């Protein structure tokens, strides 16, 4: 076996090559890209970034709606919330600088405007929050609420908190034509404490009424919830209402007018409490028949025949009485039940009116002992007046609040849901 002994020169050359190889290897490591290893010591920028990250707040602010939104809700826009922190400052202003009042939650994690925002208005929101270490976070947004031309509202009867008679339906008239009736009707919920089934019926693209099959139960409470905010009732036309309305049903009063006997029986819970002589429409101007609901009351009002088509050859009204006492509207077209001080001896004896139902009364509406005054004081909006034996047609269901004249199956068929 041959043993080779390295010379001193060879050993020195090999050590030099090893050192060179190590140096080259080090250069390759330092200049390599995409590797997992990091330099042992961060440079100045990395140290600065790391320090900044440690000082950043962890509070997460949310603003509804998002920045740049158009057609925003007037009910739910401008709402602010925060996670991992508390709100320290919320400022909502219109574009021209008018501040919006708001309400902060007890735990300071949410804020909302105190009332509805204005339509067609641009709002700017500026929010500051702090996390548990007192580090501040900021957020800003700008949005514009829905315009009147791109929104609809429903004007409803009866009024919130009112007490009405058993015949008063929920009636909603929309200020824009509704093409998606199903979507809108799904945003309206009507319920009653008596448990009666309530159905809604569309009379047109702008009117929807809701009622039970029979009159409301005496003493019941009716609740209507409008969840129309953001509902698209027609292309690019959105609802803006979000509210709950309640009204109460009073005593059950139904008055029955018989044009043949010229008497009216006022009943409560089916029992007659008073019989009053009346004068209905003359043979040439018969009173509508059917179930009619009192929709308005006036202690005194003007009645001009020209407003309802009764004119003479000169185009003037066949009558113009400026102080008709104790008038209560039964139809939109102009049928009233009212006091009458100018008709002498006709009550209970002759039908002489232009279609209204007249009761004996005093000029000035100041004699409480007259039948007209008594009936006025003992009637309320929503009471039912049933007119019989006039020989005229039945009043149209949409002429006033008179949907009770439509059979239930037809009423339900007019629902969109």
From TrEMBL:
Active site: 338 (proton donor/acceptor), 356 (nucleophile)
Pathway linked to the protein: Cell wall biogenesis; peptidoglycan biosynthesis
Keywords for the protein's UniProt record, in alphabetical order: Acyltransferase, Cell shape, Cell wall biogenesis/degradation, Peptidoglycan synthesis, Transferase
SUPFAM superfamilies: L,D-transpeptidase catalytic domain-like
Keyword Cytoplasm: no
Renumbered residue ranges of the record's region Disordered: 97-117
Domain L,D-TPase catalytic: from-to ranges: 253-388
Coiled-coil positions: none
Transferase among keywords: yes
Descriptive protein name: Ig-like domain-containing protein
Lineage: Bacteria, Bacillati, Actinomycetota, Actinomycetes, Kitasatosporales
